[in-house]
Amino acid sequence: MSSVLTVQNFSVDYLVEPVVHAVKDVSFTLSRGEVLGLAGESGCGKSTLAYGIVRLLKPPAMITSGHAVFHAPDGGDLDWNELGTEELRQARWDKISMVFQGAMNSLNPVVSVRDQFEDIFTTHRPRMGRRERRRRCGDLLERVGVDRGRLNAYPHELSGGMRQRVMIAMAMALEPQIMIMDEPTTALDVVVQREILREIARLRDELGFAVIFITHDLPLLLEISDRIAVMRSGEIVELGNALQLYTAPQHEYTKQLLASFPSLTGDRGSFVRGAMDDRLLALDAVQVGKEAASS
Ligand SMILES: Nc1ncnc2c1ncn2[C@@H]1O[C@H](COP(=O)(O)OP(=O)(O)OP(=O)(O)O)[C@@H](O)[C@H]1O
Questions:
Q1: Where would I find the ABC transporter domain in this sequence (predicted)?
Q2: Whose CA is nearest to atom 4 of ligand 1?
Q3: Distance from the Cα of residue 65 to its chain's centroid
Q4: Rounded distance between C-alpha atoms, residue 232 and residue 236, angstroms
């Protein structure tokens, strides 16, 4: 599978006293259409890495080494470090979009959902006609399970879950190749979380964007990720296929992290284990198919 993003030797410091080395020499590639989970305990550097990739860090943060290179479908490469302010602004919603934990609170309360949504198109697709813009906004809302009639609403009239769905729809508006999601559902209750995650998985299958999904909820990552990177103290200590990471973790810290979730080891693990069993069964089926094909 071809890569959509290459992150190479990426390091970020916070220039405070004493200096915090938040991200240390991180390298990984993201394949087209894959969900890469980024796991690790609070403070290990997940958000700093995510904000760093899209150059949204503010002082005292400083990228001290490395590159994040976006690979366009036409074969062109875009080194995020070499973009100017305006190019970065353009590229952000267009090529890589982001949904952060508090994203739903970044909607302007006194501007209708429609106006905020359409603003993305007027800014980034100035040639698009009004009718087309309206149609797309409605379609996108419906994609995330929100009635298009809600376009007329103001953010305060929507529940938290709905506002977060609106943000996800907005992040998809320009059909980016990559969505970075940093704890996108943490503020929501578990049922709404699951619904939204299912929706994201379905949309990924439909539209083919890649996702970097950040959370310290490892059981959840195991359910939704193709591969998982485990971070500790600013470094990726293990990166591998989600199933393998669950069934045969290599690094001591990954084992500790897995063990720290009773839902993965105790009786309450049936939900995750059920999902993982389904995956194992699917993998078995593929294996059997391969064996049948080669015999
Ligand atoms: N503005 C700042 N100034 C100084 N240090 C910071 C700043 N922001 C973050 N850090 C430090 O950088 C390190 C990485 O933080 P970061 O928020 O990236 O971790 P995280 O894994 O995303 O944590 P969480 O899961 O809690 O969001 C931590 O040690 C944190 O204390």
A1: 7-258
A2: 14
A3: 23
A4: 6
Cα–Cα nearest to 37, from 242, 228, 254, 219: 228
Spatial distance between the Cα atoms of 87 and 67, rounded to a whole number of angstroms:
16
The pLDDT tens digits of the residues spanning 110-156 come to: 999 999 999 999 989 999 999 999 999 999 998 888 899 999 999 99
| CA of residue 281 to ligand 1 center, whole Å | 39
Contact 218, 232 (CB under 8 A): no
ipTM over 0.95: yes
Of the candidates 31, 4, 1, the one whose C-alpha atom is nearest the C-alpha of residue 176 is: 4
Total number of residues shown for the chain: 295
Whether pTM exceeds 0.90: no
Regarding the beta carbon of 48 and ligand 1, being less than 6 Å apart is answered yes
Amino acid (one-letter) located at 133 = R
Contact (CB, 8 A) for 225 and 211: no
